[in-house]
Amino acid sequence: QLQLVESGGGLVQPGGSLRLSCAASGFTLDYYAIHWFRQAPGKEREGVSCITRGSFDTGYPNSVKGRFTISRDNAKNTVYLQMNSLKPEDTAVYYCAAAPFCSDSTMTHWGQGTQVTVSS
Questions:
Q1: 22: alpha, beta or left, given left = phi > 0 and alpha = psi -120 to 50?
Q2: Could you please report the per-residue DSSP string of the chain?
Q3: Among 50, 66, 38, which Cα is nearest to 103's?
Q4: Cα–Cα distance between 28 and 48 in angstroms, integer?
Q5: Which of 40, 53, 79, 96 has a CA between 20 and 30 Å from the CA of residue 33?
Q6: What is the pLDDT of residues 44-102, one digit of tens each?
Q7: d(CA 109, CA 120)
């Protein structure tokens, strides 16, 4: 069964850090570009990061640039999203997804999401 599973979400104070994990089973993550999205209640889904196949390039929107870092561990078949200097506006459900390229708008696989709450 092809599956993506996110973990690492939780409650953190403003200025804190979290590391989200996206683990794959049934397929090799490095054959895909891996995207992280987030969706807050009442808001549209927003892409927050992408890493290409082979980790040749990464991308971030201005809202998280300099604070979030995406990386891969191919030995663990896992992609990570390190989130630093978290703000209340980062509160959302975070999803990882796989696609052939970072430029793709249609994903082939989705995870179930993990909740991140930034609050004092």
A1: beta
A2: --EEEEE--EEE-TT--EEEEEEEESS-GGGSEEEEEEE-TTS--EEEEEE-GGG--EE--TTTTTTEEEEEEGGGTEEEEEE-S--GGG-EEEEEEEESSTT-SS-SEE---EEEEE--
A3: 50
A4: 22
A5: 40
A6: 999 999 999 999 999 999 999 999 999 999 999 999 999 999 999 999 999 999 999 99
A7: 34
